[in-house]
Amino acid sequence: MQQTVFSRLRPLLSSLAVPIAILLFWQASSSLGWINPQILPSPLAVLQKWLAYWQPLEAYDPAAGGYLAWLLSGELIHDVAASLWRVVLGFALGGGLGLLLGLFMGVSDPVYRAFNPLIQFLRPIPPIAWTPLSILWFGLGNPPAVFLITIGAFFPILMNTISGVRNVDGIYIRAARNLGASRATLFRRVILPAATPFIFTGARVGMGTAFIVVIVAEMIAVNSGVGYRIMEAREYFWTDKVIAGMVTIGILGLLIDVLMQGLNNRLLKWHRGIDQ
């Protein structure tokens, strides 16, 4: 029994070994005075600031509202909610457009030839390069941030969808046609399932890009979110709060990637040969 528990925990312990070693070395270096705390605060100082960032700014007052509303009134919760809302909205827009256009470009050579030169021209342009135009077109606030995130999520999903559709093994297509499958059935039962692993890969890359873009956009165009709070902390030289914001971004990205990977494994059992 103990051996079974240890064998299950072994992958987790192996994954945590390097981060824990880095944190211990970092904390020891700070305690010994090797690192200037103004430049790089210790892990304990960052943790303390992160907890303060999470906590409500004011003491609980029953007359002002319920306990749950007070508990969720901290800066961190509001900033995380604002950033996640922008990421989800931009990712949905960019991912939806990228998936739709990618499917059309993948199955239709005329559509591919018509759009591919424009796509290859726009794709190398970083989403951040669109910042001045996004502010000029949409002003300040959520619209320019969502626009930049949409661009960041669009191209990874588009390119992976095109690759997935156009690289379906020809033997499957010929077999379906020999069995009398219509074009709609061929697309729904052969092409789309075969391209799904590529689409999920593009979605994971697009989500990572969306997080990068939202932080930069919040530093420039909005007055809320984790990126805005990092920029505010930089102006006041609150290095511990800057790192606390960075840690928050890392945690959010890790949780979302784990969820997407779990969804990927669940929906693609047939592709990976997973029985359970």
TrEMBL record:
Keywords: Cell membrane, Membrane, Transmembrane, Transmembrane helix, Transport. Gene3D superfamilies: MetI-like. The chain crosses the membrane at residues 84-106, 145-165, 186-203, 209-230, 242-263. The keyword Transmembrane applies. It holds the Pfam family BPD_transp_1. Its main location: membrane. It is found in: Cell membrane. Coiled coil: none annotated. Residues 80-260 form the ABC transmembrane type-1 domain. It is a multi-pass membrane protein. Belongs to the binding-protein-dependent transport system permease family. This is ABC transporter permease.
